[in-house]
Design goal:
By secondary structure, the protein is α/β, with parallel strands linked by helices. About 40% of the residues lie in helices and about 15% in strands.
Length: about 675
């Protein structure tokens, strides 16, 4: 196989490449490719492609599952912002709905006059933008052993294989099926079939502008070659993995030979990468692309095009940037909005770094929930990598943005320069560094989730309006003279979260919990949990002993209700006076009751101002916000309560009733009377 190199001047005159060939080798980790250091190399053809192109030595995937990873690559958008993090049958209807807002590379190129073709069988949204989409090419393959195929052997054999791989570094059981059965059903089109189809497409479109996407699956489990008794007995898991890669590499070489012989190579941009890597037996994880170690998150990335200066680039990059880089190399202006992709061409030409922080995440779906379903999130910054592992109920854990009170069961920090094998966890040896990286990860995730609001412009404007009011209050009053009224209910908790969103995860004001001593037990537990989770400067104010004594002494329920309101007012007035507050921020809404319809965002009181940032929210907006941002909430709402007050005066909402149907109906009228008397 030969490679011709055009001069940079020639390339400048021919920026719009006639052929763009995008190769994704599923589950191909960088460390097993020869030019990334694997000796002896199983990838001579990929190595030659790299020798005549631009090789990025530290490329990170954004997620370790195929569906969201490829969606991220093809849209130039991080999975969190794109709104898809799950894979295969776990993808939700909401995720598919959100994807409709995305623009894929195939669609951009099609609009710029390219014919588009994909050899892939994932289907669904992955078909968008292609004039031709192959789907599964080999169909109706005869199954010699239909009984074996229908039994639940694969799951049990995979469990047995994992045990064997962990201790012996060999996969015996699933390979038995592929080594000795005459005609096993391989669950993907092998690389030779993919390349045959690619050559047909190229031959039919020799003179056309063509974007051709090839998805190779050979490196993915199950490993089906080589076959025979010798390899079955002697090859370990890495041998069989490399055998698949070697076969894949040979077919890529065949494709490149075709391009060269037919005069199409010098007019082509070739991109090669992988969706994610693979664990073989490293880090005590047998044969599964889970976790966020380098074996799984670091993938190959090669751009080969006429006029490029062959080079290897050490500076870390992220796959999300491939989208803009392809367009930039081809001289196509990138007008796609709401994406994260940044062109790597400045890095290629001038060494200008693209990013300072690199984000990635991982899911573990377990059919048998042992040890636990997990979600990991991590980042690389400089020489350091940070990983945190969360566990929780799958419904919450696998949401695009999981609830913030999901339990973090481990934190890991590695110095990749000194410890490339990620064996020495520094998390507890350097608490300051761990906290810095943890905070930066939380903020990065929060920023991406906020950007995801583009899917609903009306809701986005409501959120932005609230943040504007909060920031305006921060400018209008000294921060130490601002208090936030927090009840532990859904509205005031959303208000607190909005403050955190406005101030990079911090709450720079005093948080005031008015403890009537009659709150639900669940409220007290929730307040304590959130105080620790969000690091709140919490002031708990209690009712006076005299007022509580009067409350307990009366048997008149109406008088009790009046006294309970008076006690709250007295406590608030006391804290305003004690801390000389200029403003009290409260989470009330116009739609709760007609008595609030005349409230304004900034409302004068006798000795301070009230600030109401979520007046324009409705009950549905509160829950939309909670689910979008993963805001924790007290479990009473799941038990039928819609509005929470003191326990003696609150019950579950009436069927078919309004939000406040579980509260004492006279509350708002009572509050109006108390205001007229000058209490509130």
């Amino acid at each position: 196989m030969k490679f011709c190199i055009m001069s940079e001047d020639m390339a400048r005159r021919k920026q719009h490449f006639k052929k763009i060939i995008f190769i994704i080798a599923d589950t191909l980790r960088a460390k097993n490719v020869g030019l990334y250091g694997n000796v002896p190399s199983p990838t001579p053809n990929i190595d030659k492609l790299g020798e005549h192109g631009v090789v990025f030595l530290n490329t990170y995937t954004s997620i370790t599952a195929t569906d969201p990873s490829i969606s991220s690559i093809m849209s130039g958008t991080y999975p969190l912002r794109l709104g898809i993090v799950n894979h295969g049958p776990h993808v939700t209807m909401e995720e598919e709905k959100t994807l409709k807002q995305a623009t894929f590379l195939s669609e951009v190129l099609k609009n710029r006059g390219y014919k588009t073709a994909a050899i892939d069988w994932l289907g669904r949204w992955h078909k968008r933008g292609y004039d031709y989409y192959s789907g599964r090419i080999v169909k109706g393959k005869e199954k010699i052993y239909p009984i074996f195929d229908r039994l639940p052997f694969p799951l049990f054999l995979r469990i047995l294989d994992k045990i064997a791989i962990k201790y012996l570094r060999r996969e015996f059981f699933i390979r038995f099926y592929y080594a000795f059965f005459p005609n096993p059903n391989i669950p993907y089109d092998p690389a030779n079939v993919v390349v045959d189809e690619a050559i047909k497409i190229l031959s039919k479109n020799e003179n056309e502008k063509l974007f051709l996407y090839l998805h190779f699956w050979d490196a993915h489990a199950p490993h089906t070659r080589p076959r025979g008794i010798s390899s079955y007995l002697t090859d370990n898991i890495e041998d069989t993995y490399n055998a698949e890669i070697e076969f894949l590499d040979g077919q890529i070489g065949r494709l490149i030979d075709y391009l060269e012989k037919n005069g199409q190579l010098d007019d082509a941009l070739i991109v090669l990468t992988a969706d994610h890597g693979e664990n073989l037996y490293e880090h005590d994880v047998p044969f599964n692309h889970e976790n966020l170690y380098e074996d799984v998150v670091k993938v190959p990335l090669i751009f080969r095009y006429a006029g490029s200066t062959p080079q290897k680039i050490e500076s870390p990059v992220q796959q999300v940037d491939i989208f803009s880089t392809v367009l930039d190399i081809c001289g196509i202006s990138n007008k796609t909005k709401n994406i994260d992709s940044k062109s790597l061409l400045p890095l290629i030409k001038r060494g200008t770094k693209s990013r300072k922080v690199f984000y990635f995440e991982d899911f573990t779906y377990r059919k048998i929930n042992y040890p636990a379903n997990t979600r990991r999130r991590g980042l690389r910054k400089g020489d350091y990598k940070y990983i945190e592992t969360l566990i929780g109920k799958p419904k919450d854990l696998y949401a695009v943005f999981p609830r913030e009170d999901q339990k973090i069961v481990s934190k890991e920090v590695f110095n990749l320069k000194k410890d490339p094998g990620e064996k020495i966890n520094l998390a507890h040896k350097n608490n300051k560094l761990t906290e810095e990286l943890s905070t930066q990860l939380a903020q990065l995730v929060q920023d991406l989730n906020f950007k995801r609001l583009k899917t609903d412009q009306v809701f986005k404007k409501k959120v932005e309006k609230s943040i504007y009011i909060i920031r305006k209050a921060a400018k209008k009053y000294p921060s130490d003279k601002i208090g936030i009224a927090w009840t532990g209910g859904k509205d005031s908790t959303v208000l607190l979260h909005l403050v955190r969103l406005a101030f990079d995860g911090k709450v720079p004001f005093k948080v005031i919990f008015n403890d009537s001593t009659m709150e639900f037990e669940e409220i007290y537990e929730f307040i304590d949990k959130m105080k620790k989770l969000w690091g709140l400067d919490l002031i708990t104010i209690k009712h006076s002993k005299k007022e509580l004594k009067d409350f307990e002494a009366t048997s008149d329920r109406e008088r009790k209700k009046e006294l309970s309101r008076l006690m709250k007012i007295t406590a608030i007035n006391h804290v305003v006076k004690k801390y000389k507050l200029k403003a009290l921020i409260a989470g009330i809404r116009w739609d709760e009751h007609e008595s609030r319809s005349k409230e304004t965002y900034f409302s004068k009181r006798k000795d301070h101002d009230r600030v109401h940032p979520i007046l324009h929210f409705k009950e549905k907006d509160i829950w939309d916000y909670i689910h979008h941002f993963g805001v924790p909430y007290v479990n009473l709402y799941a038990k039928g309560y819609r509005s929470l007050g003191e326990k003696p005066f609150t019950k579950k909402a009436e069927k078919g009733g309004g939000e406040r149907s579980g509260r004492e109906r006279e509350k708002e009228q009572l509050m109006q009377n108390l205001r007229k008397l000058g209490y509130w």
